[in-house]
Design a protein that fits this description.
Shape: elongated
Strand content: 5-15%
Number of domains: 2
Radius of gyration: 21 Å
Number of helices: 13
Number of strands: 5
Distance between the termini: 21 Å
Order of helices and strands: EHHEHHEHEEHHHHHHHH
CATH topology of the largest domain: Rossmann fold
Helix content: 40-55%
Length: 300
């Protein structure tokens, strides 16, 4: 991403859970707040926000958090959805709340909902700000969110890789961003317990989409699959024929909502009073360096 492309009109939408989890599993558990409770995830998330805001000087920025592991509307459609995930440890649940509080104290908009996932909230904000003419950078490691990326947008696994545009994502994943839902409909997603079509893996899904372009065309012309030049083509055709409804269900589960109920989509970063932030920093038992950096970021 060039300096011109990171100007303040760019909208940055942060999939916060990724960075909270990374901090939780990478930072020292010796870090505790004034009450002796673990706060290593909060500290790591604070460092992430400091680095990110200093680097981007973001004017439009939002953080989205997941609060719908078992209460998402997708669970009503398909009860096994994400049922394979272990509940978050109790200390992490509390630290997630602190991370939300920190973002607010820095003047960053925070979004969370018990029916819609962070992906849906990001998708809705993306849809809103794309309509207003903004370029958008989705900050995440989640492949699902790549489906939002237009030729003018970026997907950034911050701290792990450079920002990737539409073409860069196509090269990384072997499919276009607009094919991500159809890809997951075929290959499934073990992390989210999305079934896909049993026996259709990543490579086969890529081959099918590169040939048929989208799931609807594939399902309409599935008999052609046996004539394609890849190993197991005939068997693949039978699997697609037998599991068309499962593929459609998987696509529905994978598709990000673009109209989640958001009351206020104002995500302009605000300059905030330092007093509440100072109190939070003291409660978290943060050291002088991160204290200074957080106060600097709050003033941007």
């Amino acid at each position: 991403m060039t300096e011109q492309e990171t100007q303040k009109s760019t909208v940055f939408l942060i999939d916060s859970s990724v960075f909270v989890f990374r901090s939780y599993y990478s930072m020292s558990t010796d870090l505790v707040d004034v009450n002796g409770d673990p706060n290593h995830a909060v500290y790591g998330f604070a460092r992430f926000l400091v680095r990110f805001i200093k680097q981007t000087q973001a004017k439009y920025i939002a953080t989205a958090f997941d609060e719908s592991l078992t209460t998402s509307f997708r669970n009503e459609i398909y009860p096994p959805y994400k049922a394979n995930r272990e509940p978050a440890p109790e200390d992490l649940k509390q630290q997630f709340k602190h991370c939300q509080q920190l973002a607010k104290l820095l003047g960053i908009a925070v979004f969370a909902d018990d029916s819609y996932e962070a992906d849906d909230l990001i998708g809705t904000l993306h849809n809103s700000y794309a309509a207003k003419g903004h370029n958008i950078c989705v900050v995440s490691a989640d492949k699902d969110l790549a489906q939002l990326i237009r030729p003018t947008d970026w997907w950034w696994d911050y701290g792990k890789s450079k920002p990737l545009n539409y073409q860069g994502l196509t090269e990384k994943f072997g499919i276009r961003p607009d094919q991500v839902c159809d890809f997951l409909a075929l290959a499934g997603d073990q992390v989210d317990n999305i079934p896909g079509v049993k026996g259709v893996g990543i490579k086969t899904a890529q081959i099918l989409l590169n040939h048929f372009n989208d799931l609807d065309t594939l399902l309409a012309r599935y008999r052609e699959i046996e004539y394609l030049s890849f190993r197991g083509a005939k068997s693949c055709m039978k699997k697609i024929r037998e599991h068309q409804e499962l593929a459609k269900l998987s696509r529905l589960l994978s598709k990000i909502v673009l109209d989640a109920p958001i009351e206020n989509d104002d995500i302009i970063k605000s300059r905030v009073s330092p007093e509440p932030l100072i109190k939070f920093i003291e409660t978290m038992n943060f050291g002088p360096m991160i204290r200074r950096e957080l106060l600097e970021v709050a003033a941007i």
